[in-house]
Design brief:
It contains 28 helices and 15 strands. By secondary structure, the protein is an alpha/beta fold. α7 packs across α8 and α26 packs antiparallel against α28. The protein is elongated and about 110 Å long.
């Protein structure tokens, strides 16, 4: 049982005198004894009526929520609780547009009972956090007479003394204005906040561990999903990566079907997820897909960051109804929400209100108005949304009878009004520390041992092994699933119409420009070979450099959730490059080689193609390394342009007499080795060309070719091989460093 706040209010210190809050409330309401004026009587009537009206409003909202929520009743004993509650809003008026009508049999018996691992995996978690504090160092500067002053490092407090407890079956909402620290607090509770956090966070009395992370679901504010995958494919790949490997393939697919049915995604299951530029499912359906990914692993603790952001009121109500049903299924659910309606507010069991990182309230939703009335803050009109009232207080705005009456009584000027306005937030923070904080601490430490039952029932050896085991699937399974998912997602980008048109148009145009060239125009043929090395050096590099910056959020979310190892992801990404990135160069060389009049030999053609493909992989590896090191699109694009320009000039075609102090650049340029190999396989050592009227010269004596230094073919191949491996190892190391930070 949760600890309810005491009916008798804690004592408040006013003007150096300690007085119970109930007496203060009576005095501010006009019930403080004889000698009260008519104005005090009016205030008393207003407060009394307001309390009754809020009580009536709370009851009406509760009845409405009960009618709206058609969830299954949770069993008394938590070990028999079903992992997934019945779909909220099963009536025809409340079903999502993509929901499927359930049969009567489905309503009487949960389909989840068919899987024994579902019941066995449910381990309720009680989340406790006490006196949390978090500070960061930020750079700040100011402008003086139009000139920017040097920036200085300042310390900014994001969280300061935040406490609370969420038990199984409870839905806690975090309220506060933008920048109040809601997302920071939620990220800290998920164990994903970098840096040092003061205070304590326990999960059923235990610190964060790999086992706890696997039982925790974290839904970010932005839906980080692959745009070209369907709803079913998204959940299926997540199930293969996150569900334990002792489950069969059919059991995992069955779990996916249950999630799709519960979240009302049946009719849109074959639609692509979509994104900002690609039309797909609706915003509410996309949010349910994000929730479904976390529900696959049967989380005991579910954390959601702004799950209703950007949604209409009806969709928002459905999302919160789903969260309420999940909480009633025996889970601890915590969510941040910006500005809920009154219907949404009364669906929450507890609420934490933050203002500039400091709590001004933490407790049950039904006691909010009563608490603030006891310290003199009452809404100026009846039936005000409690959430709006709380946000006004958190923003230093208090539309209460307390402020207006006190100003009328004291007859103060505008300066006193501004001072009182500035002191609202400080007063609320101080009131929380003096009055609510002791009660919250008592609530946190009450029945502390009851949440460790599941841990006490687990043998210590199994518990240690469970914490040590970080991955639920094998390396090979992760590699296989990631490879299939990557090929299915990236085929739309690699084989897009725009990219195919770009490559085909350039290949045909270059074939026409070098149409049937011959040895008598050796300079033109050499120029075509250099064009091969440059085009298929810059083009793959410019595409690969955006890979990791664009997938950074997805990689961070999935890896922190324990879905796969970084090595399996990287090897699968590298293996997926072969069919995706080598098809278009093959088509390009096939068209341009024969149109350009190069040596009509199939062996020479195949050697030329292999050199170009090797050059593509090397340049792509360099792009991956630059993107992984910088992780910024603009910086990576700028650096890649500079690097490619240097390789172009040092390639050996434009500048042949490079000064000795900078001649080392050509030895780090993959374009130089590719160009040199193309010339070596295209012309034989004793091949001649017509260098004048009736005069023949050796090809290798041509000034542009002689400078390259022919005869080191295998050394050139080895150099490209070292670059191929080195660039990709560098990219992996950079990703590992970024992950550790």
């Amino acid at each position: 049982m949760d600890r309810a706040y005491k009916p008798s209010y804690p004592k408040v210190s006013v003007n150096g005198t300690t007085t119970p809050q109930a007496e203060i409330y009576k005095k501010t309401s006009g019930g403080g004894g004889g000698g009260s004026s008519s104005r005090d009587n009016n205030i008393n009537n207003t407060h009394t009526a307001s309390n009754w009206k809020y009580e009536i409003l709370r009851i009406l909202n509760t009845v409405q929520i009960r009618l709206y929520m058609s969830v299954s009743i949770v069993n008394t004993r938590m070990k028999h609780t079903t992992i997934h509650a019945q779909l909220p809003g099963s009536s025809s008026n409340n079903v999502s547009p993509c929901a499927q009508t359930q049969s009567p049999n489905d309503q009487t018996q949960s389909p989840l009972s068919g899987l024994p691992f579902v019941r066995d995996s449910l381990r309720p978690i009680t989340l406790r956090f006490e006196a949390l504090g978090y500070t960061i160092k930020s750079q700040s500067g100011h402008q003086d007479h139009g000139l920017n002053s040097p920036t200085s490092n300042t310390t900014r407090t994001l969280l300061n003394g935040v406490s609370g407890v969420v038990r199984p079956g409870e839905l806690l909402a975090m309220l506060g204005p933008s920048g109040s620290g809601k997302t920071t607090l939620l990220t800290a509770l998920a164990g994903r906040l970098p840096g040092k956090i003061s205070g304590t966070i326990t999960y059923s009395g235990q610190p964060i561990s790999n086992s706890i992370k696997r039982k925790t679901g974290f839904v970010t504010q932005d839906d980080i999903l692959y745009q070209h995958l369907t709803v079913t494919e998204t959940l299926t790949y997540a199930a293969f990566l996150r569900l334990p490997e002792n489950l069969t393939r059919d059991e995992k697919l069955h779990q996916v079907e249950l999630i799709i049915t519960e979240l009302g995604l049946t009719k849109c299951r074959d639609s692509i997820v979509g994104g900002p530029l690609i039309r797909g499912v609706s915003g509410g359906e996309r949010k349910r897909v994000s929730i479904g990914q976390e529900m696959l692993v049967n989380p005991s603790l579910l954390l959601l960051d702004e799950p209703t952001s950007g949604l209409d009121s009806t969709t928002t109500l459905r999302i919160v109804a789903i969260l309420k049903g999940l909480a009633q299924g025996g889970r601890s659910v915590v969510t941040t929400i910006h500005q809920p309606s009154s219907r949404l507010y009364w669906m929450f069991d507890k609420v934490v209100v933050l203002s500039d990182g400091c709590p001004i309230y933490s407790g049950h939703t039904g006691q909010v108005m009563e608490y603030f009335s006891s310290i003199g803050h009452v809404p100026g009109f009846s039936f005000m949304n409690p959430a709006d009232f709380l946000l006004d207080l958190a923003n230093d705005v208090s539309p209460t009878t307390r402020n207006r009456d006190h100003h009328q009584q004291d007859h103060q000027g505008s300066s006193d009004n501004q001072n009182d306005h500035k002191s609202i937030k400080q007063f609320l923070i101080s009131s929380y520390k003096n009055n609510l904080q002791p009660l919250v601490k008592d609530d946190i430490h009450e029945n502390f041992q009851d949440t460790s039952l599941t841990i006490q029932g687990t043998p210590p050896s199994k518990r240690a092994l469970d914490n040590k085991k970080q991955w639920t699937t094998s390396w090979w399974m992760q590699f296989e699933v990631l490879l299939k998912r990557g090929l299915k997602e990236r085929r739309h980008e690699s084989y897009s119409r725009l990219r195919i048109f770009q490559v085909m148009s350039v290949s045909i145009l270059s074939g026409l420009l070098w149409w049937h060239s011959n040895l008598s125009h050796l300079q033109d043929q050499v120029g075509l070979l250099f064009f091969f090395s440059i085009f298929w050096g810059f083009y793959p590099l410019s595409n690969a450099i955006f890979t990791f910056p664009q997938e950074r959020l997805m990689l961070t979310r999935e890896h922190s959730s324990g879905m796969y190892r970084l090595s399996s992801y990287y090897i699968a990404r590298t293996a997926g490059d072969l069919p995706m990135e080598l098809v278009l160069p093959t088509i390009f060389i096939t068209i341009t080689y024969w149109m350009g009049g190069l040596k009509p030999s199939f062996t020479t053609f195949m050697l030329t193609l292999l050199i170009i493909l090797l050059n593509v992989l090397v340049s792509q590896g360099l792009g991956l390394a630059l993107g992984a090191i910088l992780m910024d699109l603009k910086q990576a694009a700028t650096l890649s342009s500079v690097v490619m320009l240097v390789f172009l000039l040092a390639g050996g075609y434009y500048v042949q007499q490079i000064p000795p102090f900078i001649s080392w650049l050509k030895y780090v340029s993959f374009s130089h080795y590719c160009y040199k190999l193309l010339v070596e396989v295209q012309y034989s050592k004793n091949e001649v060309y017509e260098c004048g009227i009736g005069v023949e010269c050796r090809v290798f004596d041509h000034p542009g070719i002689k400078y390259l230094g022919m005869g080191d073919l295998w050394w050139d191949v080895a150099a490209l091989g070292v670059m191929l491996i080195g660039y990709r190892v560098l990219a992996y190391v950079a990703l590992s460093i970024k992950k550790s930070h």
